[in-house]
UniProtKB/TrEMBL annotation:
<dbReference type="InterPro" id="IPR036318">
    <property type="entry name" value="FAD-bd_PCMH-like_sf"/>
</dbReference>
<feature type="domain" description="FAD-binding PCMH-type">
    <location>
        <begin position="27"/>
        <end position="142"/>
    </location>
</feature>
<comment type="similarity">
    <text>Belongs to the FAD-binding oxidoreductase/transferase type 4 family.</text>
</comment>
<dbReference type="InterPro" id="IPR006094">
    <property type="entry name" value="Oxid_FAD_bind_N"/>
</dbReference>
<dbReference type="GO" id="GO:0071949">
    <property type="term" value="F:FAD binding"/>
</dbReference>
<dbReference type="GO" id="GO:1903457">
    <property type="term" value="P:lactate catabolic process"/>
</dbReference>
<dbReference type="GO" id="GO:0004458">
    <property type="term" value="F:D-lactate dehydrogenase (cytochrome) activity"/>
</dbReference>
<dbReference type="GO" id="GO:0008720">
    <property type="term" value="F:D-lactate dehydrogenase (NAD+) activity"/>
</dbReference>
<dbReference type="InterPro" id="IPR016166">
    <property type="entry name" value="FAD-bd_PCMH"/>
</dbReference>
<dbReference type="Pfam" id="PF01565">
    <property type="entry name" value="FAD_binding_4"/>
</dbReference>
<protein>
    <submittedName>
        <fullName>LDHD protein</fullName>
    </submittedName>
</protein>
<dbReference type="GO" id="GO:0005739">
    <property type="term" value="C:mitochondrion"/>
</dbReference>
<dbReference type="InterPro" id="IPR016169">
    <property type="entry name" value="FAD-bd_PCMH_sub2"/>
</dbReference>
Amino acid sequence: APNISMAMAVQKQHGHDESGLAGISGAAVAPVPMVWPQAVGQVQELAALCYRCRVPMVPFGTGTGLEGGVNAVQGGICFNLSRMEAIAELSLEDFSVTVEPGVTRKALNKHLRGTGLWFPIGSGGMRGAMRLGVAALGVLGV
């Protein structure tokens, strides 16, 4: 129960981004289950299930995208990856870090404190809660 929801309020929260394009509230689609996987294995199992059942997968970070990518106009299952917050690996030698998609810039910088490295706000967004959203990112030296 804490990792899946069919509630309309949750669907409205996750059914659109900042693009202004119509999301699930503006399209005639079936209810979209929202799931919060907490481990890579759970994502893999859900992806395999969606593939077998030919159900669209809709990944969700913070909803700040500008392309309409989270707008489930064909239904599907929304994967909210915000609970995947592990910082898996940090290499000071090559200025790289491997993170799960729910790691925020603030959380990463807290983890980097004392190393002489930081992850600055980039052109991708100005919000403090901006999700990094990729598996590996370079970080800058001071």
